[in-house]
Design brief:
10 helices, mainly alpha
Length: about 210
C-alpha cells in the first residue's frame, strides 16, 4: 500500500527527535549516501567526507524542529545542499591546518548563508541524491513484488537489456515484461514522491 504524507508524521518533523531511529534510518539511507559522495567528489579524503556527513546530520537534527521554507532559503533540499557544500569547502580549505574548526552547531548553520554555489556543484549533489533515492525506493519495492516481476523490471529498466532477450531468458512474454516494468516503475515513483512530500508538507502537518 502506498504511503501518503497526510497519514503519517512528517519525516522532517520526526527528525527533531534523535531517538526516532525509524525516521533517521530512512533519512540516512538516502541523504547520507548523497552527502558523502558529494563530499568525495569535491576532493575530500574519506575521513573528511565522513566528517562532513556527520556535521550535516547534526545541523539537520537542530534545524528540523523549526524548519520553515522561504524564498531566500528555498526548499529543505536546497538548504541541505548549501550546508553540505559549504562544510565540504571549509574542510577542504582547512585540511592542512591543525584545526578544522569548532564544529559547533551554530557555526554549521551559519555556513548556509554563503554565496550561491555553481551550477556544476548543484548538478553533482542533485545527481547523487537522485541516485541514492532511486536505489532506496527500489529496495523497498523489491520486497513487495514477485522475483520474476522484479527481474523483468531490473533487466530492462536498469541493465538496459532488450525486451525480447529478457522475455526469452525469463520464459515469459514480451507484453508481460513491459507490464512488469511499468508497474514497478510506477511504484518506485510513488515511493519517491512520498519521501519527498514528507519534507514539502512538514509545516502543513505541524499545524494540524
Amino acid at each position: 500500500m502506498n504511503r501518503l504524507p497526510i497519514t503519517r508524521h512528517s519525516l522532517l518533523l520526526r527528525l527533531a527527535d534523535a531517538e526516532d531511529t525509524t525516521a533517521w534510518n530512512e533519512f540516512l539511507e538516502v541523504y547520507e549516501v548523497a552527502i558523502y559522495r558529494y563530499a568525495c567528489s569535491r576532493g575530500l579524503q574519506l575521513a573528511d567526507a565522513e566528517d562532513v556527513t556527520q556535521k550535516v546530520c547534526v545541523a539537520v537534527l537542530e534545524k528540523a524542529t523549526n524548519w520553515e521554507p522561504s524564498a531566500e532559503r528555498g526548499s529543505f533540499g536546497a538548504w541541505l545542499f548549501r550546508v553540505t557544500r559549504n562544510l565540504s569547502a571549509k574542510i577542504w580549505n582547512d585540511r592542512k591546518r591543525s584545526s578544522v574548526g569548532s564544529g559547533d552547531s551554530d557555526a554549521v548553520l551559519m555556513l548556509a548563508d554563503v554565496p550561491e554555489p555553481s551550477d556544476e556543484e548543484k548538478t553533482v549533489f542533485h545527481f547523487e541524491y537522485r541516485r541514492a533515492l532511486f536505489h532506496w525506493a527500489a529496495e523497498r519495492i523489491r520486497e513487495q513484488v514477485r522475483e520474476p516481476t522484479w527481474r523483468a523490471f531490473w533487466m530492462t529498466a536498469v541493465e538496459g537489456m532488450e525486451t525480447e532477450a529478457v522475455a526469452t531468458e525469463l520464459g515469459i512474454s514480451a507484453s508481460s515484461i513491459y507490464t512488469a516494468k511499468c508497474r514497478v516503475l510506477a511504484r518506485i515513483r510513488s515511493e519517491i514522491e512520498c519521501f519527498e512530500n514528507d519534507f514539502q508538507f512538514a509545516k502543513t502537518e505541524s499545524r494540524k
